[in-house]
Design a protein that fits this description.
The protein is built from 13 helices and 5 strands. It is mainly alpha-helical and 283 residues long. Among the domains are: 18-63, no CATH class; 74-81 and 115-238, no CATH class.
Length: 283
C-alpha cells in the first residue's frame, strides 16, 4: 500500500467549548450544537439568560444563581461607560462621520483596549487583585511600589495604578453604587468584592487615588473565577452595546450636530465658494 492509498483522516476541530453533529443531508450545516456538553438549541435556548450563556462559554460550566446575578450586575454597570469614555467617543466620531457600523465598533475597540480605562488596564487590575487578595498589607506594599507584572512589547509601561482613577479626588458616585450593589449580592461567596467594599478607604489611601470602575469590576471577576485574559476579553465585549448605540445616534444626528469640537475647526485661509465647469459657484 502506498501513501496515496492510505485512508485520509477526517478533519477534526478540537474544542472543549463546542461540538456539532451535521445534518444528514447537508454536511455544512449543524443538526445539533453542544456548548460544554449542553444542547444549545434543544436544552439551553429559552431556559438560560444571555449572561448565563456567557459564563458557560468562558467557564465551561453552568453558573449558579448568585454567579449569574453578579455577572449580570457587571454587564449592566459597564455596558455603556458614556461619552466621557474614549471607546464611546471613538464610536460616536465614526457614526457622526457616516462610517460603516463595523468601522464604528472597530474604532471603539482600539481605545477601549488600552491601559487607561481599557481592557488592558482590566487585565493588570485582575493580576493586582489576584496577587494581593484580601491582605491589606500586601495591597499597601504593592501600591506603594507598583511594577507591572507582565511585559508585553505592544504595551508601554502603565502611567497609573490599575483599577484607580489617576485624576480623581474622590470615588465617583457610580463606582461606589456599583461596589455597594455587587458586594451585597453574596458577601460570603464573593469575598474579594465584599473585602474591597469594607476596605475601600484604606486601599484608596494606600494608592493616593480613588477606586475606579475597573477596580470594582476586577474584584467581582476575580470572585467569579475569571482569569486575567478572560477578564480582558470580556471587558471588551461587554462595553460594545454602549458604543453601538451612541454610534447609531450620532449617525442619525449627522456631523452638524456632533456635540464635540463644534467650534474647534476654523479655516484660517478660506478659498471661498468653489466654481463648477459652468462657472456656477457652489459650497
Amino acid at each position: 500500500m502506498t501513501a496515496a492509498d492510505k485512508p485520509k483522516k477526517k478533519d477534526v476541530i478540537h474544542s472543549k467549548i463546542w461540538q456539532e453533529t451535521p445534518e444528514p443531508d447537508n454536511p455544512f450545516a449543524a443538526q445539533v450544537c453542544y456548548c460544554s456538553g449542553y444542547d444549545v438549541y434543544g436544552d439551553l435556548l429559552g431556559k438560560i439568560s444571555w449572561v448565563e450563556y456567557l459564563y458557560l462559554l468562558f467557564k465551561l460550566e453552568p453558573a449558579t444563581k448568585t454567579q449569574a446575578k453578579l455577572l449580570e450586575g457587571i454587564a449592566v454597570a459597564i455596558a455603556n461607560p458614556g461619552p466621557r469614555d474614549l471607546s464611546i467617543r471613538a464610536a460616536m466620531s465614526g457614526g457622526a462621520g457616516g462610517s460603516l457600523s463595523v468601522s464604528c465598533l472597530i474604532g471603539a475597540l482600539g481605545p477601549g483596549s488600552g491601559q487607561y480605562g481599557g481592557a488592558r488596564e482590566m487585565y493588570l487590575a485582575i493580576r493586582l487583585a489576584e496577587t494581593c487578595g484580601k491582605d491589606l498589607e500586601a495591597w499597601k506594599q504593592k501600591l506603594s511600589n507598583y511594577e507591572k507584572q507582565c511585559h508585553v512589547k505592544a504595551w508601554p509601561d502603565i502611567d497609573h495604578l490599575p483599577g484607580f482613577d489617576p485624576y480623581g479626588s474622590s470615588c465617583a458616585t457610580p463606582v461606589m453604587q456599583t461596589l455597594v450593589y455587587l458586594s451585597s449580592i453574596a458577601p460570603e461567596e464573593f469575598a474579594q468584592t465584599s473585602w474591597l467594599h469594607q476596605n475601600r478607604h484604606a486601599v484608596e489611601s494606600a494608592s493616593d487615588s480613588p477606586l475606579s470602575m475597573i477596580g470594582v469590576i476586577a474584584a467581582a471577576l476575580v470572585d467569579l473565577g475569571f482569569s486575567d485574559e478572560q477578564a480582558e476579553m470580556l471587558f471588551l465585549l461587554l462595553r460594545l452595546p454602549g458604543a453601538a448605540a451612541h454610534a447609531l445616534e450620532q449617525k442619525h444626528n449627522g456631523l452638524a450636530k456632533y456635540p464635540f469640537f463644534a467650534d474647534g475647526l476654523k479655516l484660517l485661509n478660506d478659498p471661498g465658494p468653489a466654481a463648477d465647469a459652468s462657472g456656477k459657484t457652489n459650497r
